[in-house]
Each structure stands twice: as structure tokens, then as C-alpha cells.
Amino acid sequence: MAIWDYANPTRFLRLVEIILPWLIAACAAAFAVGLYKSFFMAPEDYQQGDTVRIMFIHVPAAWLAMMCYSIMAISSLGTLVWKHPLADVSAKAAAPIGAALTFTCLVTGALWGKPMWGTYWVWDARLTSVLVLFIMYLGLMALWRTMEDPIKAGKAAAILTLVGALNLPIIKFSVDWWNTLHQPASVIRLDGPTIHPDMLVPLLVMALAFTLLFFVLHLMAMRNEVLRRRVRAMRMRAASVAAPATARATAQPAE
Amino acid sequence: MDPFDLGPHAGFIVASYIVTFGTMAALIVWVLVDRARQLAALKELEEQGIARASARRDKS
């Protein structure tokens, strides 16, 4: 079945109804296992002590913040190139989730930074580029709200999203290109992860849990957006029916 | 290892988890409230006799 078969919103809503309960169950199970492993199985770090447990939420939030923007960029291509009817629905629904994940990443990073670096914040390349990502999310959410017509808003937001995607490689490679307080990549590396499996496994389980939570929220928000557009279409239909009747009434000569 | 003894920086660890799960809970509440609002608006319009164009095509 091709992606165009889900261009029909009614078919998409039916598919969401089937998938969602399974995704929610898998997400809850992954969080239960991930949190158990994070607090009961993972050892303290020899330098950082227990603060390493912040990694189990900070790193997945950072990964998902970037993945969410990547999905928005692909959706934007879908809007501009293939004109898929659900592409801008997907991009619009993802933006608040991405903003929340980026916010989580920034706050947990600051709370991890204070005891380890001695400061909540430094204006280095990694932290600043993630802050730019957060501002991009907020800007896109504001842009969607400024335009009444969702099709026009979707096209404008798609262009801005694709321009903002230039920030993704900057975030990823900022720790390699510049001297920063932030540590370099220790999981996604060409020569393999440098984290001990006792910490890597809980991290990957938590990353899976956050990924499932993202897809649950994204599908639910997309479903809401489809319903919102139905409401808008029906209100416009009601207004167009009422308008000629009003015009006829006002056009009749006074007796 | 005692999971309830988080060392001298326990406040930072607990605050991180509270912020994360608080934010995720807020997102879940937001999508559920939004869905309820859209469904209520759809129901109100349907009660006024306004149908979607595609729904009318399905009936005919």
C-alpha cells in the first residue's frame, strides 16, 4: 500500500484508531523497563556519580528534538514537492512536540551542567545551536497561527522549516567543529559507542520509550489537526450557505 | 545500589525527571483537551445540520 493511499484523511484516521492502542502499550512498557534499568540496574559513573542518571532523559530528549525537526523537514518536502495532503498536517502537529522535547533537553542539560561544569549555561556552539532549534520551533508555531488559511500557512512554514534544517548538522557536529564544554558524541560514532553496556542498554531503552511517546503524541496531534480542518471546512460551508440568504434578504425593496 | 540515595546532587536529578515528565504530561493533556474541543465543535455543527462535502458524497 503506497503512502498516497493515506492521502485520504478518513482512511488515515481509521489507521490511527488501530495503531494507537498498540503504540501506547509499547510506550508504557518501554518506559517501565527503561526507568527500572536507569535507577536499579545502571551503576553510578566513576566521575559523575548519580548525576549520570540525568543522561537517560537528557540524551533521548536531544535525539528526539532533532528527529522531530527532521520529520518536519521531510514533511515540508512532501508539502512543497509532492503536495501530499497530510504532509503539512504532520509538520504542524510535530512542532509543539519538538518544542517541548527541545525545552526538556535544554533544562535537563542545564541541571546536569551545574553540578558537573559549575554552570547552568555557556554560550558554546552545542548549547547555542540547540537554543536556536528551540526558537525555530516557536517561530514555526507562531507562523502557523498568523495565517488563517492552513494551506498557505503550510507552504510558508515548509519553506522556513527547510531553511532551519541547516541547523541540524550544525547541532550534530558542533562538538567536533568547535571547542565546547559539551562532551563529543559517545553513542552514535563510526567506531562504535564508548559507553559501557551497563549504561548503554538503559539509555537505548529510554530512547525507544521516548521515540514511541513521540509517535503516540504525533499521531494524536495529527488526528486533532485533521478534525480541526474539518471543523473549519464545515464552518465555511455554513457561512457560505448563510451569506447568499442574508444578501437576498437585504436586497429586497422596503415596503 | 540504593536507588533512593542519589548522592549530593539528588536535587538536580529529581528536578530533571520532574521537568521531563511534567512537560510530557502537559503534552498529553494538551492533545487530549484539543481532541475533546474538536469533537465538541464537530458535534455542534452536525446538530445544526451542517455536513461535510465528503460525507454528503458518501450518502449519495
Summarize, please:
With 255 residues, chain A is mainly alpha-helical.
Task: Name the structural class of chain B.
Answer: mainly alpha
Major protein interface: A-B, 39 and 35 residues
What is the percent of helical residues of chain A?
over 70%
Shape of chain B: rod-shaped
Q: What is the number of beta strands of chain B?
A: 0
Poorly predicted sequence stretches spanning 5 or more consecutive residues of chain B: none
Pfam families (chain A): Cytochrom_C_asm
Domain Cytochrome c assembly protein (chain A): 4-182
Main location (chain A): membrane
Membrane topology (chain A): Multi-pass membrane protein
Describe the structure.
The complex is a heterodimer of chains A (255) and B (60). Helices cover 76% and strands 0% of the residues of chain A. By secondary structure, chain A is mainly α. Chain A has a domain at 54-183 and 193-239. In chain A, helix 3 (87-117) crosses helix 5 (150-164), helix 4 (125-146) packs antiparallel against helix 5 (150-164) and helix 4 (125-146) runs antiparallel to helix 6. The longest helix of chain A is centred in the last third of the chain and has 55 residues, at 197-251. Chain A is elongated and about 85 Å long. Chain B is an all-alpha fold. Chain B has one domain. Chain B is built from 2 helices and no strands. Chain B is rod-shaped and about 65 Å long. Chain B: Required for the export of heme to the periplasm for the biogenesis of c-type cytochromes. Chain B: Pfam families: CcmD. Chain B: It is found in: Cell inner membrane.
